[in-house]
Design brief:
By secondary structure, this protein is mainly alpha-helical. The chain has one domain. The protein has helices spanning 9-16, 20-32. The chain is flat, with a radius of gyration of 10 Å.
Amino acid sequence: MQPKTLLDTDILSALMRQISQATGRAKTYLGDHQQLSISLVT
């Protein structure tokens, strides 16, 4: 199981642009956790 982590702005941007490396890792992360986490600062 991967530890719970916060997304930074670069990764969030990559996900929004649907960059395959970012989306693949996000899918793996979501296999362990119910949702992606961001902070109000992000």
